[in-house]
Design goal:
Layout: E1 8-12, H1 16-27, E2 32-36, H2 39-49, E3 53-56, H3 65-73, E4 80-84, H4 89-97, E5 102-105, H5 110-125, E6 134-137, E7 140-143, E8 148-151, E9 154-155, H6 160-171, E10 177-178, H7 179-186, H8 195-209, E11 219-222, E12 226-229
Parallel strand pairs: 1-2, 1-3, 3-4, 4-5
Antiparallel strand pairs: 6-7, 7-8, 8-9, 10-12, 11-12
Helix pairs in contact: 2-3, 6-8
């Protein structure tokens, strides 16, 4: 992981066995692990220790994890990965709409968790001066700073809406974006419930950018929640 020796992850989880499992897995990656077993303690640790990433359970004994996310987002943009036994889509959407960057349902695969953490730490470390606006997806090169999309060296013709949608995904690469968030960013607040627009335009982008639109490698559907741009496996 980038700068692994300097990375600090705060695990806010009340189950000691899961905390031990996460500590062992993350420390094996060279990460310093901080722990909190309640939501209030987690908020104090997040404020005092300034971790690089939070892993938050929703089922905490004092505060709901959603309150922890809301509290942290009041002052920090630190990446937040939710790890919870709650599998209902409404719970996932609520956490993501409050500002969580990702959501994994227990039981989860360790390899997937580490991949998500790597993606969010890379995204955190990207500069905000336009350099991060360039991205390669297979044989496609996207350069938002110059409004350029090339596939196999040839220009790809995108409509203004397709380009805006792609831009939101690129700037939030690795992050799960809810339908509501994407609709608000691309079409505006009056279209917050028009999810069929997203299906249509994501289909257009996949046909133009994916090797096999029926089995996308980069423009991934998070069923019932939204979409995520994946830059590596």
């Amino acid at each position: 992981m980038p700068g692994a020796t300097a990375i600090r992850v705060l695990v806010i989880e009340d189950d000691p066995a899961i905390r031990r499992f996460l500590r062992a897995a993350l420390e094996a990656e060279g990460i310093l692990v901080l722990e909190a077993d309640t939501g209030r303690r987690g908020l104090v640790e997040a404020g005092n220790r300034k971790p690089d990433l939070l892993i938050v359970d929703l089922g905490l004994p004092d505060l709901d994890g959603l309150e922890v996310i809301r509290g942290v987002r009041g002052w920090s943009a630190v990446p937040i990965v939710v790890v919870s036994a709650r599998s209902q889509e409404a719970e996932k959407v609520a956490a993501l709409d409050l500002g969580a960057d990702d959501y994994l349902t227990k039981p989860f695969g360790l390899a997937e968790l580490l991949a998500r953490i790597r993606a969010h730490l890379r995204r955190r470390d990207l500069p905000q001066d336009g350099i991060d606006q360039k991205l390669r997806l297979g044989d496609t090169v996207i350069d938002l700073a110059h409004r350029s999309v090339l596939r196999g060296g040839e220009p790809v013709n995108l409509t203004p809406i397709e380009y805006r949608l792609l831009g939101v995904l690129v700037r939030n690469r690795g992050k799960v974006l809810t339908h509501r968030h994407l609709l608000h960013e691309v079409w505006g607040p009056s279209h917050a419930d028009s999810s069929h627009y997203l299906r249509i335009y994501m289909g257009h982008l996949r046909r133009k950018l994916e090797r096999d639109p029926a089995q996308p490698e980069f423009l991934i559907t998070e069923t019932g929640i939204g979409y995520r741009l994946v830059t590596e496996g």
